[in-house]
Amino acid sequence: MGLSLKDIHKVYEGNSKLAGLDMEVEDGTFLSIIAPTGTGKTTLMRIIAGIEAPTSGQIVVDGQDVTGVHVRDRNVAMVYQQFVNYPSLNVFENIASPLRVSKQKYSKKEITERVERVAEQLRITEFLQRLPQELSGGQQQRVSIARAIVKDARIILLDEPLGNLDYKLREDLRLELKNLAAERNAIFIYATPEPIDALTMANHAAILHDGQITQYGPVREVYRKPNHIKSGEYFSDPPMNFLPCRIENGQAVVTPELKVPLSAMKADVSAGDYVLGIRPHHLYIRIGRESQLDEKISLTAELVLAEIVGSDTTMHLSHDALELTALSRDLQDRSLDEELTVYFDPEQFHIFAADSGELVSSAAAVRR
Amino acid sequence: MAKIELIDVAHEYQIGSGDYAVKDINITWNDGVSSALLGPSGCGKTTLLKIISGLLRPSEGTVLLDGEDVTGLSPQERNVAQVFQFPVVYETLSVFDNLAFPLRNRGANKQEVRERVHEIAEMLDLQDLLKKGASSLGAAEKQRISLGRGIVRKDTTAVLFDEPLTVIDPHMKWHLRRKLKELHARLGLTMVYVTHDQHEALTFAEQVTVMDVGEALQTGSPRALHTRPAAPFVGYFIGSPGMNLFDATLQDDGVMVGDLKLSYPSETLQGLGGKKLQVGIRPEFIEVRSDPDDGAIKSTVEAVNLTGSSLILDLAGKGLDFKVRVMEDADVNEGDTLYATFPDERVILYADGRAVKSTLKEAA
Questions:
Q1: CB contact under 8 A, B202 and A307
Q2: Is the distance from CB of B304 to CB of B333 less than 8 angstroms?
Q3: A4 CA to chain B: closest CA distance, Å?
Q4: Where are the beta strands (DSSP E) in A111-211?
Q5: What is the distance between the alpha carbons of residues A208 and B226, in angstroms, rounded to a whole number?
Q6: pLDDT, tens digit, for every residue of B282-309?
Q7: pTM value?
Q8: Dihedral angle, C-alpha A71, A74, A75, A79, nearest 10 °
Q9: What's the rounded Cα separation, in Å, for the pair B14 and B23?
């Protein structure tokens, strides 16, 4: 049971958008597909929905090949970034519309019950008699989501549905979506460029890169052990730091100043060119409580910009051509252009091959 | 460059309706300040921005630019530049011509235009794109052109931004924010930035005004808004997750939240009878440890959520449900017992939606 995509290709005007994409999504999965804008997320969602046909490949739902099946005959619902509601229908009728056009007939009573139930779950009961344009953006998007889930579709596709909403509203809706999904026997697939969406809602994450799913797994595993440079890049905010280096004689030479022994990284890697990836919160501006840090694994860098948010400080630093981002869990009042020593936690380095971008070694433990 | 002041500004879109989009607004932006108006959709922040720019004449109150009353002046007469949510560029023109447009409009000569366009292009990293057609560029580049057009004229008094990063991808946002900060440092222009995104507001601005339902609830530094939110809404709206807020009731020499008694000096409690009381504390200010601690709240971990660099714990204890933020690598699991402490100086008492001064607390 579940969704499987087999060798999906999609070519637009000679350009390959999806190139041999394979993915198996099990029942009960809330999957987040993470990739920047323009990488084919929407194309993939439309193909799963049946709005678009793949150039080649196969889509199988619960063991049944649905590749050629029309969107109306698939048990799928989709929510877009731009909320789409029928402007002339009130909220009740908007939510009821998928039930009314469905091949499966619903009685009047059943329709009312279902609409009222999802309206309550999405906290829009009081607006049922209103027209969509009388609602705020957040409320309208709630209506779209209600419409998507009212039919108990087998697969619910969410294409960046929170993208146009307020920051705080997004926080609330993420929680609601997570709870809604938990109550349903459906596969939720949520496409987004924002790592926080995946971390807070999904139980699985997929990285879409170069027209393929390059990593798929439980969210925390994908987050803690990116298998490719692109996984680290797409699934990080603030962005993961990447330090090109040469590994020889048992150490990674980033600069003449910064040499990281392989033993400190708990890595056994042959000589060659690599890239070290490390998240901003594993860079330290002082050694205090983190006394396990080796003060030699450090670099002098110039502070380009310090951004304080709440009780955190994000520092943008530069060392020659190297740009670094460090996240410090305290308030750092520092002047720009100041020279700082940046310490690295060597056990948090992910070592990627310079040519292929693939993960070669990582000491990161995947817990929880 | 200019100092901007709004004095007793209020606006009804329908005069006499009593339905104010903004009201009781008194805010000063000193010359050269970087500032933000932060609030949810419909809070009146864009209305306020239009009042500053001159696109909207407020139904009440005065707008001063460098002490001069400009309430009735048009945007052109105010020399205020604006950058909108969606980049405004002439798609058929080159990047150079886009940037040159406002200068040529004012009759600048060829050499002036060339010099200034190159100067601005250099600030915004657009030098290599000057000959390109604007239509061939991505959203982030177009937004840099919009920004460049806004600041290209030397007589620009202030730059107003209305959600300028909305259409920009997360990774580009960092770069553009940095660019904006650099520009601000270099040009010293007064900048007002409207957004619903606390992260953008707090990282861009040295002065932030938090708005809700047409009112300016608090104007202050990002740090002040974080450590001492003047209203529960400010505490909730700033921070991810926002402040923990508990309903409180007066009792003898203190207030009760859940089964927790917080003692206050009697001066603090005077006059609070009959008011709606709330107590707030931020998730990052609550201290937790796994060993029993005197006076700490024995709590059960109900949920553990990873948000990237932190874990957010849902805790329950003493009849209270609250969130605590800890390091990402902390070893905490659902069902664990933790002992939570609310440090005195971090607890804020609110009465009828406003922070009560001198909330210093004696030992509970």
A1: yes
A2: yes
A3: 28
A4: 155-159, 187-192, 204-209
A5: 37
A6: 999 999 999 998 889 999 999 999 888 8
A7: 0.85
A8: -20
A9: 14
